[in-house]
């Protein structure tokens, strides 16, 4: 530990606290511009800034000292070391002035028991209120706290190229210290859980396509889709293809797998991963929006259609803690309109007897159950299937009811939601639900307009990015389920190609209505972070 290292972390953190693009992208750029940093130094910078982002509201409260300067990035890093990492003052004393040592003692001793629950949960007030309304105070706190830890590093074994047992045996054989360095994921039959610090992207099994980095939750989702040999399968929001490739492997490289997305950049990344995967049944197509005319000829052709919809990503806060400070009720309202529109359009691709799977990595009912219920209410030719039963048929014992609902504190995965619908011949009766599509939007807009005014603390960061760019940036973050460690590693391996992203003009039928109703919150001016 050196003063310079803490300074580097503080510089990086003050940049991240602007919240104008995804943290992982900024961190990658920082490492590209600071190539002299060694592996351990990179790890410290990455861990400390992500650590602060996970506990930003709590640490802001702890460091709000006499001169009321909660945005001081260096103080936040030091407070993270002292309060979250439990480091002794003795260990850093040599780097501090007498006055700073006194400050460190105050930080160590500060009582935090009586902090408001939203601060202890480390989320914004609007999100806390939503979580409490949905899960109750106790579970909401447990869920939010489970997001304070780093995510696991999970691998998916590419069963086209090897078995889980073989890959596991190779990892164990490599382990020189003799202790077990790899375990099987409890639910996914093709997953392995690795030690966090492992450098996977340079591993020969990775470069040869035997393994992919993928959260166990995503692997379970691919099994929930249950694509079979010879089927016609569409991945409507394929992104960089995490689930596409998993489904391709489950199809044993037979049948036809279509990957659609509005982002050419993400489909390009899918192409890179495809080369390693050994799959040859994939057809990736960029679409202008969910209403792209080229989709028309594919109506009614698919056995399986997966809609892994763009969402707030609030289930991935262990990996993307910046999202909890960047997402707003307005974003949520706009996303739910988008999700409903994409799901409705994608459903047309499903053939009678085929299945439509809607999924998000969000924890919020607005993006999950509400979308599913509204879809059923407006699409009488679809019925809901029981997710637990489908998983059982795939030898996965995981019963979360009709819907698949994964939560970090229960399943040690990212938070995921999925609903499986079967297309019937259209004679089934519509399912009665309490709310209509309009009611959902109204409810969210209500939240948007009643969001409490911003306070000065860093937990109310300013958002300076224009909407379109911000949205693309959020989706970018969600696409890559990158761990902090991977960011560190990736930067040492290769300079990624910069691909210019096409501007996507999306026609969202109800967007105009939503915009008119949303009361825009006042812009939050965050105090410049002192270095
Ligand atoms: C949650 S991400 C998908 C992640 C991906 N399935 C995976 O497993 O890696 C959502 C994706 O939806 C895409 N998207 C956004 N709007 C879309 C639309 N109208 N039609 C199709 N895809 C869309 C985004 O570009 C983004 O890649």
Automatic annotation (TrEMBL):
Gene3D superfamilies: Sun protein, domain 3 (3.30.70.1170), Vaccinia Virus protein VP39 (3.40.50.150). Residues 143-424 form the SAM-dependent MTase RsmB/NOP-type domain. S-adenosyl-L-methionine binds at residues 261, 308. InterPro entries: MeTrfase_RsmB-F_NOP2_cat, MeTrfase_RsmB-F_NOP2_dom, RCMT, RsmB-like_ferredoxin, RsmB/NOL1/NOP2-like_CS, SAM-dependent_MTases_sf. Keywords: Methyltransferase, RNA-binding, S-adenosyl-L-methionine, Transferase. PROSITE patterns: NOL1_NOP2_SUN (PS01153), SAM_MT_RSMB_NOP (PS51686). One of its GO terms (molecular function) is RNA methyltransferase activity. One of its GO terms (biological process) is RNA methylation. The active site is at residue 361. Belongs to the class I-like SAM-binding methyltransferase superfamily. RsmB/NOP family. PANTHER family: NOP2 YEAST -RELATED NOL1/NOP2/FMU SUN DOMAIN-CONTAINING, RIBOSOMAL RNA SMALL SUBUNIT METHYLTRANSFERASE B-RELATED. This is Fmu (Sun) domain protein. It comes from Methylotenera versatilis (strain 301).
């Amino acid at each position: 530990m050196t003063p310079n290292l803490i300074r580097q972390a503080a510089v990086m953190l003050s940049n991240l606290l602007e919240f104008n693009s995804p943290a992982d992208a900024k961190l990658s750029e920082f490492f590209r511009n600071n190539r002299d940093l060694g592996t351990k130094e990179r790890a410290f910078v990455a861990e400390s800034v992500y650590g602060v982002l996970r506990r930003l509201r709590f640490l802001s409260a702890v460091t709000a000292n006499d001169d009321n300067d909660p945005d001081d990035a260096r103080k936040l890093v030091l407070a993270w070391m002292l309060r979250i990492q439990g480091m002794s003052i003795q260990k850093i004393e040599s780097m501090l002035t007498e006055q700073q040592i006194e400050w460190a003692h105050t930080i160590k001793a500060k009582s935090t028991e009586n902090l408001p629950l939203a601060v202890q949960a480390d989320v914004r007030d609007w999100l806390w209120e939503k979580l409490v309304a949905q899960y109750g105070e106790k579970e909401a706190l447990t869920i939010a706290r489970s997001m304070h830890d780093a995510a696991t590093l999970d691998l998916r074994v590419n069963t086209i190229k090897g078995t889980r047992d073989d890959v596991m045996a190779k990892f164990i054989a490599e382990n020189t210290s003799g202790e077990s360095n790899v375990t099987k994921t409890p639910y996914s039959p093709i997953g392995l859980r690795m030690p966090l610090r492992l450098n996977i992207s340079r591993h020969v099994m990775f470069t040869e396509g035997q393994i992919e980095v993928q959260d166990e939750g995503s692997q379970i989702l691919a099994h929930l889709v249950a694509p079979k040999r010879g089927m016609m399968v569409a991945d409507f929001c394929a992104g960089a293809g995490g689930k596409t490739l998993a489904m391709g492997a489950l199809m044993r490289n037979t049948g036809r797998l279509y990957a659609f997305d509005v982002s050419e950049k993400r489909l390009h990344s899918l192409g890179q991963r495809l080369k390693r995967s050994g799959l040859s049944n994939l057809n990736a197509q960029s679409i202008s929006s969910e209403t792209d005319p080229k989709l028309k000829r594919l109506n009614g052709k698919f056995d399986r259609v997966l809609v892994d919809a763009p969402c707030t990503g609030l289930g991935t806060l262990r990996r993307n803690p910046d999202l909890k400070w960047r997402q707003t009720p307005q974003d949520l309202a706009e996303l739910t309109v988008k999700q409903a529109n994409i799901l409705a359009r994608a459903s047309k691709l499903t053939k009678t007897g085929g299945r439509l799977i809607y999924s998000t990595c969000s924890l919020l009912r607005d993006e999950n159950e509400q979308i599913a219920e509204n879809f059923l209410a407006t699409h009488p030719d679809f019925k809901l299937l029981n997710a637990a039963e489908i998983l059982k048929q795939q030898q996965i014992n995981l019963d979360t009811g009709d819907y698949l609902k994964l939560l970090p504190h229960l399943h040690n995965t990212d938070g995921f939601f999925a609903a499986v619908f079967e297309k019937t011949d259209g004679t089934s009766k519509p399912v009665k639900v309490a709310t209509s599509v309009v009611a959902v939007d109204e409810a969210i807009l209500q939240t948007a307009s009643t969001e409490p005014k911003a306070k000065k603390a860093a937990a109310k960061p300013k958002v300076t990015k224009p909407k379109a760019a911000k949205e693309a940036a959020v989706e970018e973050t969600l696409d890559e389920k990158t761990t902090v460690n991977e960011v560190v590693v990736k930067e040492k391996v290769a300079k990624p190609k910069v691909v210019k992203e096409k501007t996507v003009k999306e026609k969202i039928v109800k967007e105009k209505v939503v915009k008119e109703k949303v009361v825009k919150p006042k812009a939050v001016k965050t105090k410049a972070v002192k270095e």
